[in-house]
Amino acid sequence: MARIVMKFGGAALASTEQIQEAARKAIAEKDRGFDVVVVVAAMGQTAKDVKMMVRHLTDDVSKRELGTVMSTCSQLSSALFAIAIQEAGYDAMSLTGWQAGIHTDRMYRHARINYIDVSRIEEHFAQGQIVVIAGEQGIDDEQNITTLGKGGAETTAVALAVALGAERADIYTNVDGVYTADPRYVTKAQKLQEISYDEMLELSNLGSHVIHPRAVELAKKFQMPVIIRSSLVESIGTLLKEEVEMEKNLVVRGVAFESDIIRLTVGYDAHSDASLADMFTTLAENHINVDIIVQAIIDGVKPTVSFSILKEEFAEALRVLEDSKLSLGFSFADFEIGLAKVSIIGSGMVSNPGVAARMFDRLRRENIPVKMVSTSEIKVSVVVPQDDMIRAANALHDAFNLEQALYI
């Protein structure tokens, strides 16, 4: 029998009525002849309440215990979901991550899946049951509960789909698919019928929060089809796959943006003092993600290197730089806040020169200054003043005719 994995996020499980509606979607797939696995995330408010209880006890909780506590949130979701299915007259079984055979490394709160033993899930399939699994969690080789961190439920769903040889993974969200831009801010945004793994990965990394990059990377690695669809309304959604039809021959197929970007600049007295390897190795060892990097070496001017980071990592980055100033050999560090990143994405950019020039020309005509630039084969990102972020996104959406994208 063909299999399908369905993932529901916290927004789709915020009330018993919503849980019942999500359960009906799972039952509908069972009635279509599928063996069904449902992966659920923690209900949003439940997770907040649990974190508050922990904070009332201590400001210095161990990662192991915090992970164990937080794992109970998605366990609650899975049990309630199974109860809703049972009340509708169907057989269901809820499982924790470790009961479902999800084995991870020991990185508490940021664990990675090593392998999945699907034997118990197979037993429940043989009994005709819908299996509901608590997402975001597993167990390490010492039998400790682990949690996967951001994107954990989506990553779990794709990993289970791969392990079970499923036909596809359906990711249910509060939007009805992937759009050419965030429709809340870009009025002419259109829904895409299909998008490639590479394009979705760039969109996810550049500010789109429809699906986590970890899940996209896994889907691409194992060529697992993924459909992103709405948990609120009936819709076809957007299919993630390796290659897609070029919708109306659009070279650029999406615009993404992200606020609260900070530019850090580190200066040296001499070029011989500057070691990019040492600088970024130190930051990486402290789990600080660096994005756009610009190095300036000009005769007669002290060399500098600038890089962008997210606002939430700013304080830690400054601490690391200050603690490592002597070993890294820089003379000063400066920063600029109030910035945002705006990006254009499209696999067609590889074979179409002039895309970046077209982007810069439109931003120039909009009088939007470009602070930093980063490119790859399928994307161009610019750092601009945050006050100009939405205007830049709309202008670029218009410049590349994305309102003409094929949509449903």
The major sheet is characterized as: 8 strands, mixed
Overall 3D form: globular
Q: State the helical fraction.
A: 25-40%
Biggest sheet strand line-up: 3-6-2-1-9-11-12-10
The helix/strand order is EHEHHEEEHEEEHEEHHEEEHEEHHEHEEH
In total, the number of domains comes to: 2
Mean pLDDT: 90
Distance separating the two termini: 30 Å
Please mark out the parts with pLDDT under 50 across 5 or more consecutive residues, or reply none. Answer: none
Decide which structural class fits the backbone. alpha/beta
Tally of strands: 18
Which CATH C-level class of the largest domain is it? Answer: Alpha Beta
Please, could you describe this protein's structure?
The protein is an alpha/beta fold and 408 residues long. The protein has 2 domains: 3-173, 3-Layer(aba) Sandwich (Carbamate kinase); 255-404, VC0802-like. The protein is 35% helix and 25% strand. The strands form 4 sheets. It has an 8-stranded mixed sheet with strand order 3-6-2-1-9-11-12-10, with helices on both faces. Helix 1 (16-31) crosses helix 3, helix 2 (44-57) packs antiparallel against helix 3 and helix 5 (152-164) packs parallel to helix 7 (213-222). The longest helix is centred in the N-terminal third of the chain and has 25 residues, at 63-87. The chain is globular and about 75 Å long.
